[in-house]
Each structure stands twice: as structure tokens, then as C-alpha cells.
Amino acid sequence: MLGSDPSTNIAIPKLPKEIEGLEKISLNLWWTWNPQGKALFKYISPYLWKESGHNPIKLLKSLSDEDFKALVKNENFMKEYRYVLTLFENYINNSAQKQNSLPIAYFCAEYGLHHSVPIYSGGLGFLAGDILKESSDMNIPMVGVGFMYPQGYIRQIIGSDGWQNGANETINKDIAPIERVMDKENNHFIIKVPFIDPPVYTAVWKINVGRVTLYLLDTDIDKNDPWDRQISSHLYVPDPNQRLRQQIVLGIGGYRVLEELGIEYSILHLNEGHPAFALFERVRNFMEKEKLSLNDALQKVRETSIFTTHTPLQTATDVYSFDMMSNYFSDYWKRLGMSKDEFLNLGLNPDAPEVGFNMTVFGLKMCDQRNAVSKKHCEVTKEIWKSVFKEDKKDKTQIDYVTNGVHLPTWLGDEFRKNLDKTFGENWLDLQDDISLWSQIDNIDNKILWDIAYANKMAMVNFIRERVRQKWSNEGIDPLVAMAEGVMLDPDVLTIGFARRMTSYKRSDLILRDLDRLEKIVCNSEKPVQIIFAGKAHPSDNPGKKIIQNIFKTAQNPRFKGRIAFVEDYGEEVAKYLVKGVDVWLNNPKIPLEACGTSGMKASINGTIHLSSWDGWWIEGYNQKNGWVIGGKISNDGKDASAIYDILENEIVPLYYGNKDKWIEKMKESISTISPNFSARRMMKEYLEKFYLPISKKINLKDEI
Ligand SMILES: *Cc1c(COP(=O)(O)O)cnc(C)c1O
Question: 493 vs 194, 268, 489, 526, 563, CA distance in Å?
Fold first, then answer.
């Protein structure tokens, strides 16, 4: 077994013995969802903690030996330190009783965990991140596999013309909470990805997510040619050849990494099609290691693998031409004893057989357990892939669904959580998916809830203004740009938030459709409304960038008096301010293209009320009292925009300004109905009940989960 002790992160300075536990704590993302952990780092220096962008490693690196000595002498700090270290160690060691069971291997192309590790672009990544965190909390044995992306995703910079210019957000490996995995000779562990010729190598890093380990592949190493070094440089490279190589490295290389690390696992869970090539490697492995026939190996892979699909569109899946596939896999199918046709047929879409190998079709065909991510998305999936399911005779259920959820300890605001601790009792998180627990929400005083929401709004406004101030000082921006970026936001004004990936189907600028009507709502002198937008467009998505430009130009228009703002560089940090800082969360995708959506859940659990199209999770979440629905069951831009204005004019604005208690009642309804049902706890219990437990029972694992 290869080792990996904390000293493999070269960044952390030598700490005095008395506080050496700080190293372990900072090299585990546990602190990101435990307020006591955050408080400890803040205690060291509130100023440096903020300066570090809430990154403990950066914080520790900025301290001198004298600073450390002073900390050791500080009795209050040492008390806090010992308390947090005990909490942390108890949490980690509590996994002892589960150590005998084989983990589930979870593969995903991106993970949204914390802004100090920018290896995500959006919802898929945050779902994967929340799944790892919740598995850790629930003691579900799991190991994650993903990519390092040294150049991360783009850092968004909006020009004064409203056009998105991206700079690469490079990961600074010296201050990210990542560790090198080391080999027996104490060198950085590197594997050769099987079957790529000329060979490609990948180094391996790891991130500790509580009790779960996430392994990250990194091709940016000297051993590779420049072209190969870039395989893992960015998320979702558009060039199909490079993208195919990326997915071979993730699936097949990732599989090989676990194998060489000696990590045996029982179940393979593929989150979306990107890592699906791992299925081939699993077949090969069963044939070569367990001497199974091809058919038996295929059968075993089907029985023990889970495929989660996230797209409601056939065209949004990855398809590789047969020529490209043959370039990389012609030795591979021989090795499996398959003919070229047999092999390529596994990814053949009956509706478009000529275009190539479809990764989603491949995942669906190769896994008996498959799921969509909401009830509605399940219906859509059955429809769009019905030809695939028709070929599949034996499985009657075809496809199930597990509606996404969000990791409550990550997304609940700290102040609100403290209050829940008081109201529900210290250990309430153990019962977080129990609806009856949440009926006690009425025990929270209305004024307290309002004050928390107001403080969150204030914090958000300050954060936004501070960012503009920085930009003003550094670059000397135009006053209208400063206005568009939010300097004139007012915490006393009813605030609508719209933050998500900027892409056509989300219709981010729908609310700007009738500017005259919007102006009347926004600029009402007695009951004004402000709207905050945020979101990145994929660097190659020009329609998405045009939407941003439209929003930005509208925000720059003096007629809206600074009440419309676009916040740059949406990511985990901005999301955390917005979901709890605004009053209403707007979501108006084109039906049925929002497979699930999760940002509305993050908002709702904090008392930010959801205003959404009849799509994704909202169909399951809405109960008439906990938010609002826009338009009908079929999207129509004109009608939907009108519906938004109607609801704002007739319901939202009068309620917010006219009857605070009724508003707070709605907040409570939102919190208490959505938190239990859309928690990651409920989601992981469903994954356990629907998939993980039945599979492990079926294959008769000696060590059950
Ligand atoms: C939750 C989250 C998302 C996903 O939100 P959707 O509602 O699915 O669009 C995207 N980006 C960030 C930063 C998030 O926190």
C-alpha cells in the first residue's frame, strides 16, 4: 500500500509540537462544513484569515515562527485548538467500525468542494462534492476519482463593454489543500495510462474530504509531452480529440490508479458519461484477475455499476467518431476478445447510429442500475433514450431517479445553523432528513430569523461593494461599471438573486424582456426592488456571453439607478453569499431542460424563497406555500416574463413590504419543507436503499456496506 502522510504537502511550514495538529486540520476539508473549524482559523488572525480567502494553508504559510510561539502561549487559543482537534479526531476515528467494508468508487469529471480547489464549473461538480461530504458524514465508505485541472476553470472578468473575458484560474498547488500521493521510494506517485500510445502519464494527488479520500489525476508533469501535459489542464476541452483523451485518462487512468494503490472496491458509481470508460477497464480487470469469460465479466460489471445521467438532451452528450475510437481502442477490444463491432455497439445510439460512440448510451447500456436526478428528469430520460431502453430486454424498471440534494452543513449559513443548534438541540443534524424535526422551526422567533436574514444581506452587499472597491483601486474602472457591479446595492431593498451558469436554456435575461415594465417595479420609490445576477459562460459559449453582455449593459443603464447588478466571477464563494443574502431566488429555465437544479435548494434552506419555472426539483419541492411558480408547464418567453412581473407586482412586493410576519412565515415554510427533503442526507439514503445496499447484497459481498 502506498503511503501518503500529511508531510507530503510541501506548503505547510514546520509547526511547533504543541500545535502540530493544525496541519491535519488544514489538510482536510472537514473544517469547511464545521463552524468550529472555521472559528479556529479565524481566531489565529481575523485579518489574515480574510486576506487568505479563507484558506488555512495560505494562512499558516503567512505566519512567522514568532507568531506560532505567541499562539502556543495564548491560553485561550490553545483551549480552542484542543477542543477543535478533539472534535476532528473523534470524527475521523469514528469510522473504525466500517473499516472492513469495501468502498464505493465514485468517478466524476469535476468536484465542487471549496474555492481554494477550483476544479469545478457548475452544478455537476457541486453535486459530486456534496455526495463525498455526505458520504463522509454518514460513514458510507467511498473513494472519489477526478481531475486536478492545474488551470482550473476560467476566472471571469467582465470588460466595460459587458463582454466576458476569461483568465485562467490556475491552482496554486502550494496553497491548495491537496497532497501528493507518494510511491514506495517517496517520489510523487505516477502511473502510465494503459492503452494510450505514445504513452501518457498521470501524477496523483489527494484531497481529504472528512473521512473520504478524493484522488485527482494530473497530466501536467515533466514526463509528458506538452500536448499530453494539457490533457488535464482545463475542464471540458472543446477539441474532440483532446476531450476523448481526457476521458480515457479519467476513466481508464483513474481505474488504474485505484488498482495500483491497492484500493479494492465493490461498486462503481459513474456520475455522468465523462468517466464511463472505467467500465471497460473493469471488464478487462474481471477477465484478467478473476479469469471470468467476457460475458461473465460484462454481466458482473452491469450488476455492480451505477450510472447517473444529468442531461435532458441527446445533443448534450459526448459522442466520438468511430475513427477516433479506433485510434485508441483497437488493441483494447482485441484484449477483451471482442470484435470491433461488438465493442463499438456498446456506445451506439439507435436514434443516430452513424454519428459515433455515445458516452451516455454506453453508460446506460453497461450499468443495470441507472438513475436520473429528479422525477421529471426521469420521465424525460425515459423518453429521449427510449430506443436504448427498448433494446434492453431484461430490466423492466429501465431507469430510476434520485433527486439531488444539498449538503446542509455546507450550505446553511453559520448564524442560522447556530440558531438551529439552540432550537433543535446539538445533535439535530443526525435527524436532518426527518420532516417532523423541522416543524419546530416555529420555535424560532420571527425577529431572530429576520435579523439573521438581514445580517446575511448586509454581509453580501458589503462583500460585493468591497470587490468593486478593489477593482476601482487596482484598475480605475468607469463609474458606470462600478454601478453595474453593485456599488449602489441597498440592504433595505427587496432583493432578487439569479446566479447560475450563463447558458441559453437558463434564460438568464428573461426578466429583462420588458424594460419599461421592469423599470416600474425596480425603481418604485416606495417599494423598490433590486436584482443581482452572477454566472459564468463556458469560454466557447458565445450565446452565453451575449446574455451576460445584455445583463451588464442593462445594469449600466442609469435608468435602473444601480438597482440591477452583475457580480463577477460566480463560484463557491459568491454562491455562499448570494443564496443566503437575497430574499428571492429566481429560476426560469426553458422546460424541461433543467434536469434538477440545486442552487434553489441552497437558497430555500436559508429562508430565501424560490420563484421558479415548473421544472426540475421544484415540481417535487413546491407545496403552494413555500414559494412561487412561474408560468405553465410549457415555456413561452413572453408569457413567462409577464408571469414574473405579475408575481412580483401582485404578490412578492406587497408581501415583503406590507406584511413582514407573513413573509417570515413563508421563509419558515420554505426552510422546514425543503431542508429535510432536499438534503444530501435524504439523497444518500436513497442511493443506499435503491442501489448500494441491493447491489452489495446481490453480489453477496462478505463485507457489506
Ligand atoms: C449549486 C451551484 C451550482 C448549481 O446550481 P444550479 O441551480 O444547478 O444552476 C452552480 N454553481 C455554483 C457555484 C453552485 O454553488
Answer: 58, 49, 8, 10, 9
Final residue before a domain boundary, out of 60, 93, 126? 93
Whether residues 562 and 697 share a domain: the answer is no
pLDDT in tens, 294-328: 999 999 999 999 999 999 999 889 999 999 999 99
Q: Among the atoms of ligand 1, which is closest to the Cα of residue 406?
A: 1
How many domains, the chain?
Answer: 3
* Nearest-atom index, ligand 1, CA of 501: 9
Atom of ligand 1 nearest to the CA of 500: 9
* Phi, psi dihedrals of residue 50, rounded to the nearest 5°: -70, -45
* CATH number where 495 lies: 3.40.50.2000
Q: Which tens digit of pLDDT belongs to each residue from 89-104?
A: 999 998 655 545 789 9
State which H helix or E strand residue 494 sits in.
Answer: strand 494-499
What is the 500 CA–ligand 1 centroid distance (Å)?
6
Residue numbers of the domain that contains 243: 104-404+685-704
Report yes or no on 553 lying in a domain.
yes
Flag whether 487 is in a domain.
yes
pLDDT in tens, 612-641: 999 999 999 999 999 999 999 999 999 999
258 three-class SS: helix
Please name every residue paired with 611 in a beta bridge, in sequence order, or none if there are none.
586, 628
Q: How far is the CA of 598 from the centre of ligand 1 (A)?
A: 6
Q: Do residue 358 and residue 377 come from a single domain?
A: yes
